[in-house]
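agent> fetching stored inputs for the 1,3-dihydroxyacetonephosphate docking request
agent> found them:
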Amino acid sequence: MTTKSVLDSRPALAAEVEKVAEVAGYLWQKGWAERNGGNISVNITEHVDYQIRSMPAITAPIAIGSTLPHLKGCYFFCKGNNKRMRDLARRPMENGAIIRILDDCAHYEIVADNPVMPTSELPSHLAMHNHLIGRGSDYKAALHTHPIDLIAMSHTPKFLEKDVLSNLLWSMIPETKAFCPRGLGIIPYQLPGSQALAEATLRELDDYDVVMWEKHGVCAVGKDIFEAFDQVDVLSKSAQIYISARCMGYEPDGMSHEQMQEMTRAFNLPK
Ligand code: 13P
Ligand code: ZN
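agent> prediction call returned; pasting tokens
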């Protein structure tokens, strides 16, 4: 591993990577990141200067598995495949890498700091970034993580009907709708890392910022990695309130329809 880093003398780029490291630590502390569980990618193109653009790659071109036209010339910082969040937290550039999307929009190469192969969920991450850029969004971060409570709730068909879980989780505590206003989309089980999972994720992104991968985890997008994390965190808090009430032996009432409507109006939230 090299000791010189592309982050040296590039404070804005270093700050983005530090944010990823901070969130990686939270994921581990929360118990959402067993072994190598979860992954993060951030579009860092705006922080990439001419020198980085002219840097030679440290790997040969690698196929993405699809062609993503909006990613031409983009750069991403990604967690490495099989790397642990708890290690990403302490040593981000040894457990993640900066990749460059090539002009054919179908291949990428690793440019810094080390030849750490990106996450196995790269097809979903890059498809999401391509989709976000295509719709003119300023979202730069994508997070996939394994929150125990939310995954547990995805193991029963009654919570997998459209918006059943969103409405239930919103009704557990007023702030959940305020801070995760688009709710939780549901994606029926697909093989981890597959193109099918990436395509299913895209279909839900028009309506949701956070989606559940049934019996696997959640995927969230946001302007930065903090925003993506916060949305999963508030949903998980609601899930814990629901589960705690059930453990005490009762079905929680949830906020009433009128209380939810009042919140929606007061915070100017989508219906
Ligand atoms: P990676 O180690 O490839 O990021 O995989 C972790 C994971 O959660 C796959 O869904
Ligand atoms: Zn996973």
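agent> quick read of the result: The mean pLDDT is 97.
agent> awaiting further instructions
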